[in-house]
Amino acid sequence: MEHGISSAQWYCLNELTAAIYNEPFDDLFGTVLRAVEELVPYSHSLTYLLRSEDGLNVSFNFKSNEIPPEHLRLYMDKYSRLDFINWYTSTCAAEVFRESDIIPDGLREKSVFMKNWMEPIGLYHSVGMVIWCEGIYYGAIFLYRPKDAEDFSIQELEVLRVINRHLCLRAHALYPDGLGQVFMQQGGPAGAVLSVTCLTKREREIIDCIRNHVLRSELCDKLFITENTLNKHFDNIYKKLNINSYEELLQLIKKR
């Protein structure tokens, strides 16, 4: 076994590597998380992208399939700046690391971030992956486990490092100048809306249709669903986006 990685794991890693170099960038993090779940089990995940504005790195497209939307908003609005591992991602190059290697458990357990954000949803252990290449930051992936689980092992960190190297190379090949205005014009507007709300796959499809100028009256035929089902999807979208009408949704997508 090279670097403590088994032959079976290398087989999975080779398949994932092929996917990384063939998937659209918008789908990369989702593809990685689905594969990593078997290689490095986790209970929760959080991802975001980074772009440079006026010399500063700006985080956007926060996503999580497991963290409740309102708790994800708390992270974005209040606790991201208190997150030890998030702070560390902004100070280093491409790397994979455990929070327990940065801050002693005793200090972490007393922190506001641990008490007010991690503990309420049962999180304790965490590992971060920084997507960085040639001086440009592209984003980060965080994985979490509860306290009654084992911390992420050295061998699991090696698996994540293999994945992260390919993510960094792929991101830089697609966007050598970073995720700036070109990326936002290509796919950012709806993506920015979707990321902060944990919309379902069907809800994202509805947003994409609207972004691509499909009329509301055409959505049922386009998506092969009933009017009643469509209305339920809209109710959920409005609730997650904290809006009240289709007109507000159009304005939100237009602004993004």
Describe the model.
The protein has helices spanning 7-20, 25-39, 69-79, 84-89, 105-110, 112-118, 154-174, 181-195, 201-211, 219-223, 227-241, 246-255, and strands at residues 44-53, 56-63, 96-98, 125-133, 136-145. The chain is an alpha+beta fold. The chain has 2 domains: 7-182, GAF domain (Beta-Lactamase, 2-Layer Sandwich); 199-255, Arc Repressor Mutant, subunit A, CATH 1.10.10. Strands 2-1-5-4-3 form a 5-stranded antiparallel sheet. α1 runs parallel beside α7 and α2 (25-39) runs antiparallel to α7. The longest helix has 21 residues, at 154-174.
What would you say about this model in short?
53% of the residues lie in helices and 16% in strands.
Q: Supply Rg.
A: 19 Å
Q: Indicate how many domains the architecture comprises.
A: 2
User: What name does the CATH topology of the largest domain carry?
Assistant: Beta-Lactamase
Mean pLDDT: 83
Major β-sheet profile: 5 strands, antiparallel
Principal-axis shape equals: globular
Q: What class do helices, strands and sheet pairing give?
A: alpha+beta
Low-confidence stretches: 184-197
Query: From N to C, what is the helix and strand string?
Result: HHEEHHEHHEEHHHHHH
Strand content: 15-25%
Helix content percent band: 40-55%
CATH homologous superfamily name of the largest domain? GAF domain
Give the strand order of the largest sheet, numbering strands 1, 2, ... along the chain: 2-1-5-4-3
Distance between the termini: 47 Å
Number of strands: 5
Number of helices: 12
- Give the name of the CATH architecture of the largest domain: 2-Layer Sandwich
CATH top level of the largest domain is Alpha Beta
